[in-house]
Amino acid sequence: MVRNKHIGGRLNRSSTGKNQKAGSQISSSKDLTPPDKPAEGDIPANSPELQTTSKGQLGFPDRVYLLASFIFQNHHLAKPPAQRLVSYGKRRALSLPRVKDEEMQRTAYELAFNTLKYQELLEDIMIDSCFYLTQPMPDDLMCLVAVMLYDFQDRKFLPRERQRDGEIEQEVRDVEKYLLRFKTKLAASLARCRIKHDLLSIECILPESLKTKQKRSSSLPLYAWVNTLESSLDEVQSVLKSAGFSQVKSISQLEGETFCQDPHCGDMLVFPAQLKAQLYTTKLLSNHKLIIQDKSCSLGPQAACSLLPEEGDVLILGCLSALTVSHTACLVAEKRKGVGSNQPTVYVCVSDRTDAQREELQQAVTAMGCRNVKLIPEVFQSLDSDDKRLQKVRVILLNPKCSVSAVSNPVDFILQENGDTELLQDLSQGSIAPSRLQALVAQQRKDIDHALKFPRVLSVVYSTCSSYQEENEEVVSRALEHAKARSEQEGEPKQANFRSASSLCTPAFSIPFSIPDDAAGPEETEPFFMLEPSEQSNGCFLAVLSKEPEPVVKEAPRKAKAMRVQVSKKHRVQLLLFHQTRKHHTQEKTLPNIGHPNFFSQDAFCISPRRPSSDPVARTRRPPQEPLKPMVLVLPTIHFPSFFPAHPNYNKWRDPAQSVPLSRSSGGLSKDAMVKSRPLF
Predict the structure, then answer these.
(1) Predicted pLDDT of residue 632
(2) Of the candidates 119, 117, 135, 134, which has an alpha carbon nearest to the alpha carbon of residue 85?
C-alpha cells in the first residue's frame, strides 16, 4: 500500500525513475492497472508539468496537490466509524515538507482549506457517483482524491492547462486519470446534490458566517506599513506617485492604481488588493521599505510604542511573526530617534520555536534594519521580575494565540503571522469547537495573569483577532480582578493595581492612537477598542491595561506667598536696612520668634497691634507655627512710616549704636530692647 511518507519524500525530488516506482506501487497494491486506452480527456503519464500562473488559469502543479493532500490529511474532520462514508487512512500528524516557494505553499493551504469547507459535499459526490466503490484506491490516496476533486469541479471538470516545465508526481497523474474517466458521473452527481439541497451554487451550502467571510475576503484592501528604519513616509509616497499611483483621501475611494493613508495608523498605507504584484515593480517591497501586513496586527505595536516612556524596553510574547516584531522595533526606534545612541530593546519570547525558526526570525528582523531585538528562549511563565534582562521593561505586548474568528481570510493570516494551522478545520466550518476555545482561553489567562505580576511594568497591551467575548472582554476583566485581589493580599500600594486605559483618561483619548472624526470609535463607556470585521479590514480587539497613577500630593500654600509686594523707590533704603538686619538673624537654623500676636514665621518682626484694622496690611490673628528653614521670601506689603516714626532725620542712615540690641542667647530681641523700642510704635 502506498504511504503518504512515500509521497512526501518525493515532494523535493525529481520525478525521473522514482515516479515510475511509485506508479508500480499503486498498481501492485490493489491491481489498479490503468486502462490500455485512455479515456477522452486523459493526460499521458509522460506529459510535461501542468501548472497555473494566475487565478484565472485551470489547475495547479502536481506538487501543490500533494502538499494540499498532506494538509487535508492533518486537518480533515474525522467522523466516527459508524458515520464514516469515506476512509482517509490512519489518522496521524504528518510533517509537512519545507517548501521554499511561499506562493506555492499558500496555494496548497488555500486548496486544502476549500476542500475542508466542502468535505461533506465531496464525500456525497464520491459515494453517489460510485467513484469510491468502483475505483479501489488505497485509503491513503483518498486525501489526494478529495483535494483534486474539489479543484476538478471548481474548473467545471475541464482538464488542467499544460505547461512545459515542472516535476511530475505519478500519484497525481494516476488519480487525475481516474477522475477524468468518471467526470460525467461526477458532474451528474454534483448536479443531483445541488437539486437535492436547492443550491444555486455550492457556496450556498456553507454556513452563513462562512459565506460572509468568504465574500469579504475577496474585497479586503492591502495594508502596508512604512519601515522608517529604511525609508520615510514622504519618500514612499513620492516613489508611489512617480510610479503612477495617485493618493486618495479614504479607503472607500480606492480604485485602480490608488492608495491612501490609514485613518488609525499614521505609518500605514492602504492599496486595492490586486496591486500587490505591481508594488513589487517599485522595489519598495523587495527593499523592505514597505511591509505588507494586516492592519489588525499593527494596532498592538502602535499602542505599545505610544505607552513606552523615555527610558524603557518592550517585551513581546504570543503568536508573533517577524513582521510584528520588526514593526514594534521600528516604531520604538523612531520614537527615540535623536534622543540618544542607546535605543530601547525589544525582547521576544520564542520558547515555542525551534532553533531553526529562531534563527530564521532573527535573520528576517535583521534584514529589515532592526538592531534592537533580542530573543528570549525561555517560557514566559518561567520569567520573573528578578530577571536581569527585564529590569527596564515597562510595556508588555501580548498577542496570544487566539481563534482568529474575526479574520475573513484565515489562510493568508495564519501563514503570514505564524498562526496555528490546527484552527483551519474549525474555521472551515464557520465556528470554533467549545473544547478548542476553552483551551485557547486557558492559555490566554495564564499569559495575561503573569504579565500583570511584573512590578516595573507600567502597561500591558492585550490584542487578539477574535470575535468571541470569552477571549476578549472576559479574559481582561478576569485578569484585572485577579491582579487586584493579589495586590490586596500581598499588601501592595494602590498605584500598583492595573486598570483599563479608558478609565484613566477621557473617552476621546481612550486609545493611544488616532481616531478620525468620521470614523466609528468606541463609545464613551467602552473600556476597550474593537475593530469590527468588514469589507475594508479584518476585526481585532485591543485592551490597554495601565497601572493607576500615583496620588498627587498638593503642598499647603506657604504664607510667605499670600501676598506679593510692590515696593516703591522711596522705601527701598529702609527695606535694605531691614534685610541687612535680617541677615544676621538667619545665621541660626531657627528664625526669631518675638511672641507677638501678629507674628510672621518667615519675617522676624512684628506689626503694632494698635494699627487700625482697616489698614490693608492688617493681618488676621495666626496661631504659632513651627520655625522654617531659611528660604527665598516674598514679603507682604508694609507701610514703613508706621514702622519708622515721622522724624526730621527719617531719611538718614541710623548709627549702628542706635540699632536695636539683640539677645545672644535667643537670637531675638531682648526684653530691654522691647521696652526701649516701644515709643517707635
Answers:
(1) 54
(2) 119
Candidates 533, 524, 534, 518; CA nearest to 264 is 518
Instruction: Output b/e per residue, 33-49; b: 16+ Cβ within 10 A.
Output: ebeeeeeeebbebeeeb
* pLDDT level of residue 77 (50, 70, 90 thresholds): confident
**C-alpha cell belonging to residue 143:** 486525501
Mean pLDDT score of the chain: 75
- For the chain, percent of residues with pLDDT exceeding 70: 64
Hey, what amino acid is at 278?
Q
Nearest to 318 by CA among 470, 528, 463, 441: 463
What is the three-class DSSP state of 595? Answer: coil
pLDDT tens by residue, 401-439: 999 999 999 999 999 998 999 999 999 999 999 999 999
Sheet containing strand 258-261, edge to edge, reads 246-247, 258-261, 268-271, 222-226, 290-292
Pairing of strands 459-464, 498-500: unpaired
Range from 37-51, 199-213, 489-503, 554-568 carrying the lowest mean pLDDT: 37-51
Domains of the chain as residue ranges with CATH: 4-205 (no CATH), 215-292 (3.30.70.1170), 311-514+522-546 (3.40.50.150), 558-681 (no CATH)
Question: pLDDT-based confidence at 15, cuts 50/70/90?
Answer: very low
Which carries the bigger pLDDT value, residue 676 or residue 230? 230
* Ramachandran class of 547: left when φ > 0, alpha when ψ lies in -120 to 50, beta otherwise: beta
How big is the CA angle at 243 (ends 239 and 247), to the nearest 5 degrees? 75
pTM across the whole model = 0.71
* Segment holding 583, helix H or strand E: helix 572-585
Q: Mean of the pLDDT values across residues 440-449? A: 96
Give the integer Cα–Cα distance in Å for 15 and 163: 16
User: Going by C-beta distance under 8 Å and a sequence separation of 6 or more, which residues neighbour residue 493?
Assistant: none
Band (78; pLDDT cuts 50, 70, 90):
confident
In this structure, the chain runs to a length of: 681
Q: What confidence score (pLDDT) does residue 510 get? A: 41
What b/e sequence results for 271-290 when a residue is b if at least 16 CB atoms lie within 10 Å of its CB, and e otherwise?
A: bbeebeeebeebebbeebbb
The answer to whether 223 and 298 are in contact (CB under 8 A) is yes
Bridge partners, residue 396, by sequence: 315, 460
Distance CA 141, CA 29 (A): 12
- Identify whether the C-beta of residue 480 lies closer than 8 Å to the C-beta of residue 415: no
Read off the pLDDT of residues 446-483 as tens digits, 9 standing for 90 and up.
Answer: 999 999 999 999 999 999 999 999 999 999 999 999 98
Determine contact, residues 117/210, Cβ cutoff 8 Å: yes
**364: enclosing H helix or E strand:** helix 355-367
Pairwise CA distance, residues 350 & 327, whole Å? 17
Q: Which of 338, 453, 314 is nearest to 397 (CA)?
A: 314
Beta strands in 367-417 (DSSP E): 373-376, 393-399
DSSP β-bridge partners for residue 417:
none
**Cell numbers of 579, please?**
534685610
Grid cell of 164 as nine digits: 512545459
Question: What b/e sequence results for 492-529 when a residue is b if at least 16 CB atoms lie within 10 Å of its CB, and e otherwise?
Answer: eeeebbbbbbbeeeeeeebbbbebeeeeebbeeeebbb
Per-residue pLDDT band for 496 (boundaries 50, 70, 90) equals low
Single out the residue of 478, 486, 460 nearest to residue 547, CA to CA: 460
Residues catalogued as catalytic: 465
- Residue 348, helix vs strand vs coil: strand
